[in-house]
Amino acid sequence: MQKATQVATHKNNNVILLAPTGSGKTLAYLLSALSKLKQKNEVQALIIAPTRELVLQIESVLKQMKLDLKVNSCYGGHPFSIERKNFSVPPSILVGTPGRIKDHIERATFDTSSITQLVFDEFDKSLEFGFTNELKFITKQLDNVQHKILVSATKTIELPDYLDFDNPYTIEFEEKEKASLSIQKIIVPKDEKLEGLIAVLNNLKKGQNAIVFSNHRDACDRISEQLDNRGIIYALFHGGLEQKQREFELTKFRNGSVQILVATDIAARGIDIPDLDYVIHYQIPYKEDSFIHRNGRTARMKASGTSILILTEEDYVPEYLGEDPSLFDLKENVRIGKPDYITLHINKGKKDKISKFDLVGYFLQFDFMKKDDLGLMEVNDFDSFIAIKREKANLTIKASQGKKLKKKSPKISIA
């Protein structure tokens, strides 16, 4: 895919890349964009993505490549002033959401005349989220774009006139080796759907994880209440939460301190969650595309995964399901345990000159701490999160009192 994309973008000014979720299309278009950059302190490539989570994922991929160039990310949910200050030295690549990029253009925080490459990632999702006016505005301000890439996991997209996407060359990738996705179901009485879901979740083994999808926020909230009542640890993710809270919920799920993510379809695309064992459909989506994208969270990159439908006898089963799913082997008298890890919050981050290396050194200074006790960590501008073995959490908080982190006094707490 990466090679085909590079060849196509060198021969064609307008390219559409259609590829399934989890196939590596982000790296494919990034490599193509990087090959056209010049050694100049100006914004040359603009990548537009519909959600903050996808923006951060793209930025993360670029940082992992350890390139000698500057990348800025722009999105809502944190101060505009921080982003404006970051433009004091212009980045080569700018990644952002439509609304925030529009704000920056209106306030002239960067020069748009230097942009020669434009990438629309998850373009169909941007339209679905109602960003048409923002996209129209942005494209109208870009007079010197020479190369455009439109990326989507959905084939059924219409190209609006304002994109000026003449004679596009389309690259379409389907997985040659189908990942091992098993679609199964459980059938429960009409009034016992939540009980059925709890029974499925109690079948999760230690180290396994699952996303529970619902069509509406209120269903997520009902599930959330039931999990709270039963003492089951989970994370919640839907559009009604503040962006900062959504990112925190994802952090806990990614680092394994929660096994369950209760979510609407906003979690079906554009977030980085590797190695997912189960996708659970508490409610079946109305559209086949949504069903495909949900299932695309698991069985990624040739891995195996299971998709489970929670059905009542009265539920409508759409034709797009095809063959009747087999019954999930629901074991009785089992209960999901607590994850091995818990997340700690540290009130210091990048702006305090704190790195992941600093955090590892800080926690390993304690005699009771071993390398295996530390899990994934994320360092943000003003704070950090680290997964730590659950039994070491309170001991760590107590031991950290009075201990300096790069001559600063951190406040550490259970997140």
UniProtKB/TrEMBL annotation:
CDD domains linked to this entry: DEADc (cd00268), SF2_C_DEAD (cd18787)
Gene3D superfamilies on file: 3.30.70.330, P-loop containing nucleotide triphosphate hydrolases
PROSITE patterns: HELICASE_ATP_BIND_1, HELICASE_CTER
Segments forming domain Helicase C-terminal: 196-350
GO molecular function, one term: hydrolase activity
Keywords: ATP-binding, Helicase, Hydrolase, Nucleotide-binding
InterPro entries: DbpA/CsdA_RNA-bd_dom, DEAD/DEAH_box_helicase_dom, DEAD/DEAH_RhlB, DEAD_box_RNA_helicase, Helicase_ATP-bd, Helicase_C-like, Nucleotide-bd_a/b_plait_sf, P-loop_NTPase
GO cellular component, one term: cytosol
Top-level lineage group: Bacteria
A Pfam family: DEAD
Domain Helicase ATP-binding: 6-173
Recorded family membership: Belongs to the DEAD box helicase family.
Protein name (record): Uncharacterized protein
Species this chain originates from: Zhouia amylolytica AD3
